[in-house]
Specification:
Layout (H helix, E strand, L loop, with lengths): L2 H13 L4 E5 L6 E6 L5 E2 L7 E5 L8 E4 L3 E6 L12 E2 L4 H19 L5 E12 L4 H11 L4 E7 L3 E7 L2 E6 L2 E12 L10 H18 L3 E6 L3 E5 L2 E12 L6 H8 L7 E2 L1 H11 L10 E11 L8 H4 L3 E10 L3 E5 L2 E10 L5 H16 L4
Antiparallel strand pairs: 1-2, 1-9, 2-6, 3-5, 4-5, 4-17, 7-8, 8-16, 8-20, 9-10, 10-19, 11-12, 11-18, 12-15, 13-15, 14-15, 17-18, 19-20
Length: 373
């Protein structure tokens, strides 16, 4: 399908107020979409379902499914140009929102020093006024600006409209093989990957790595943890550790595995239940699907030994594997009443500085604001 026709399908679906999701995986030109045939709300029951899952931060709330069986699937490989006009928007940060966030961070630091927990991730929501709210136009700008991220637009008339460009994988599963990552620490990118990191960021990253490894230990074999590396996500740098292995789903089903992993210390804190409770009590707004997860769930994927389609002999060995590709919903926004609700946060440890944490949220908010200028 040619690109313009592809995007016209999406606009028609949105105008009909029918659910859809459109997404592009990191470092990939292919764009995929699922267009649901009705406005029914499908709730995940046990993660054996097939389709696209959209799960909230609060794992006691329902996760939403756009099911394969009730949706039309379309794809496009069109490379998007940079000629389309960006929607106009008005940015403003009030002094009261800054003071509230500073107070929130101070409370988090005090709780850590009192021994309540080791790390907590605290966030805020920034409102940006839009002159128009066509999600497909905004989605195109995300595609243009963030080729290494998982870039999506998700809509359900009974839930809302969300867009994002997230750098973080929750878990990828192909057959029995899995890959995940520990991603933490943030600083601005100024043209060089050769940067130094403060103890605060290094400690934060270590917390996340240890949590993921401990969560997976009883469900995997051949667990491999890479060295820490600095990676770029748009205008930001992060610390990343890759974690791979073989899943033993006989001893632990997918739902139990996700319950142990989500929410990770990268979006919640450590220990999980205490920090989650602190967040829900103190942030004074509803995160919704921010810092939840989303992506392909139990889809069938055909793989061959040789990518050369003319090699008939090797293609005879093609296999069909069940694949799930789930991402943490960071660098995202919700469009509502001609406003973009931009969600940003940061990890707080005993060494955090409230003013520096506020500035980090400003830097992170530019990821979304960049496509609204």
């Amino acid at each position: 399908m040619v690109s313009e026709t592809f995007f016209e399908y999406l606009e028609q679906q949105f105008n009909k107020k029918l659910p859809f999701v459109v997404y592009r995986k990191p470092n990939n030109n292919g764009i995929k979409a699922l267009l649901q045939n009705s406005n029914d709300l499908h709730i995940i029951e046990d993660y054996s379902e097939k389709g696209f899952v959209f799960a909230p931060f609060d794992d006691s709330k329902d996760a939403i499914l756009i099911p394969i069986k009730d949706s039309e699937s379309i794809e496009s490989d069109f490379v998007i140009s940079n000629t389309s006009e960006k929607p106009q928007s008005i940015f403003k940060n009030s002094d009261s929102s800054k003071q509230h966030h500073l107070s929130l961070v101070k409370n988090g630091i005090e709780a850590i020093k009192n021994g309540e927990f080791k790390k907590v991730v605290l966030s805020r929501c920034e409102h940006v006024e839009l002159s128009e709210e066509n999600p497909i136009h905004i989605y195109k700008h995300l595609l243009q600006n963030y080729p290494t991220a998982f870039v999506y637009c998700w809509y359900h008339p009974k839930i809302g409209l969300w867009l994002g460009a997230t750098p973080e994988t929750l878990i990828k599963i192909e057959g029995s093989r899995f890959k995940t990552m520990a991603l933490a620490g943030t600083q601005e990118y100024f043209g060089s990957m050769d940067v130094s990191w403060e103890n605060k960021e290094l400690e934060e990253q270590l917390f996340v790595t240890h949590f993921i490894v401990n969560s997976l230990q009883n469900s995997v074999t051949n667990l491999n943890v890479s060295d820490v590396e600095t990676v770029r996500a748009g205008s930001l740098l992060h610390l990343k550790t890759n974690i791979t292995g073989i899943l033993n789903l006989e001893s632990s089903n997918f739902k139990h595995l996700l319950n142990r992993l989500h929410p990770t210390p990268a979006v919640c804190g450590l220990p999980k239940e205490k920090t989650k409770s602190f967040i829900l009590k103190n942030e004074t707004y509803n995160r919704g699907f921010y810092t939840g997860f989303l992506g392909e769930l139990n889809l069938q994927e055909r793989t061959t030994r040789n990518s050369n389609k003319r090699n008939v002999e090797n293609n005879a060995y093609a296999t069909i594997k069940k694949v799930s590709n789930l991402y943490v919903n960071l660098r995202c926004m919700q469009i509502h009443n001609q406003k973009a609700l931009i969600y940003i946060g940061g990890g707080i440890t005993k060494d955090s500085n409230p003013e520096a944490e506020w500035q980090e949220t400003i830097v992170k908010s530019e990821v979304m604001k960049k496509v609204l200028h």
